[in-house]
Specification:
The chain is α/β, with parallel strands linked by helices. It is built from twelve helices and eight strands. It has an eight-stranded parallel beta sheet with strand order 2-1-8-7-6-5-4-3.
């Protein structure tokens, strides 16, 4: 019986160079940095990694680089969603050969499917692949996966070993845990909504796939460890530290621009992403960068050695503003 996937798994940003190509060297360095700061796993090709903005070939290369660099130090949960069932199954098998722990598959996007259509989609994948599957519910971007469908898949498909839920719906998470855990104790429940990380963990979730962990991995780890240790008051205190940072990053421009800004606050310039920004958006990024810098420095103060000196932050801001073409 496989063990649950637990802890904080980072849906890492995909670094790109000035020409928009995957920056493999920087990706490897970023993976090492995240692992050194205590993340429990990595999740390449997630929404934060902008998987839909890369080709199928690029997505495979991203997973390969992350899996190689992780080198078994932490598990890798690879995003395997493609445009149709056949292509998704092929991606799953490719990632199985790379040695990842499991794949995460978002429900079909663009065309909104009924609950029965979502079930049929995941059932065909689960019956065809040789790797464990976590279903990924993110109704903001894709067909929703309702509670009844998750319960049905968990009861009928041994290969479906968990759910990554980014809806932020705490009652539905509790309904799933209550229904599934008695029949499959090994089933994994992960939350992808950072604003409710601590409450989800307290309610019984096993961990999270949280974009904020790519910026302040120390903080998200501390929240998880506090809940595991039974220190709920501390977990909630830390959650209230995480909340304003998450709100600032999630609200900035085109997702995940705010999280790229957060990474810059930690000294990681991971490139501008692959979505073009208008002059007004570039100015908004430049303006908000200082706010995010201050919030990151505050929460990174969990360890004073992690706080960047003001002059370093200012240099990063100036460099980013030049790259964005915004006035200093």
């Amino acid at each position: 019986m496989p063990e649950r996937i637990t802890g904080i798994l980072t849906p890492n940003i995909t670094p790109v160079d000035s020409a928009g190509r995957i920056d493999e060297e920087r990706l490897r360095g970023y993976v090492d940095w995240l692992i050194d700061r205590g993340v429990d796993g990595l999740y390449p090709n997630g929404s934060t990694g902008e998987f839909v903005r890369f080709t199928a070939e690029e997505r495979r290369r991203i997973v390969q680089v992350v899996a190689e660099q992780a080198g078994g130090r932490v598990p890798v949960l690879a995003g395997a969603a493609e445009a149709n069932v056949k292509a998704t199954i092929e991606a799953c098998e490719a990632y199985a050969e790379m040695g990842v722990r499991a794949v995460a598959i978002v429900a079909p996007f663009y065309y909104r499917l009924s609950s029965e259509g979502v079930y049929a989609y995941f059932r065909e994948i689960a019956d065809s692949v040789s790797i464990d599957v976590t279903v990924y519910n993110i109704p903001l971007f894709a067909s929703p996966i309702d509670v009844a469908t998750v319960i049905r898949l968990a009861s009928e498909c041994p290969r479906v070993v968990g759910i990554k839920d980014s809806s932020g719906d705490l009652p539905n998470m509790m309904r799933m845990i209550a229904a599934i855990r008695p029949m499959r104790d090994e089933f994994t429940f992960l939350t992808g909504w950072d604003a409710s990380l601590a409450p989800m963990l307290i309610a019984g979730a096993d961990g999270g796939t949280n974009a904020t962990s790519g910026v302040v991995p120390e903080l998200t780890r501390a929240i998880h460890r506090s809940v595991v240790a039974g220190n709920i008051a501390e977990a909630m205190r830390l959650q209230y530290q995480l909340l304003p940072l998450f709100d600032a990053m999630i609200s900035l421009g085109e997702f995940p621009e705010g999280f790229r800004a957060g990474a810059r606050s930690r000294g990681w310039n991971l490139g501008p992403g692959r979505v073009p920004l208008s002059p007004q958006q570039r100015e908004a990024v430049a303006r908000t960068q200082r706010e995010i810098d201050a919030l990151v420095a505050e929460v990174a103060g969990l360890d004073e050695s992690l706080v960047l000196p003001p002059e370093t932050i200012e240099k990063i801001v100036q460099r980013v503003m030049r790259q964005l073409g915004a006035p200093a």
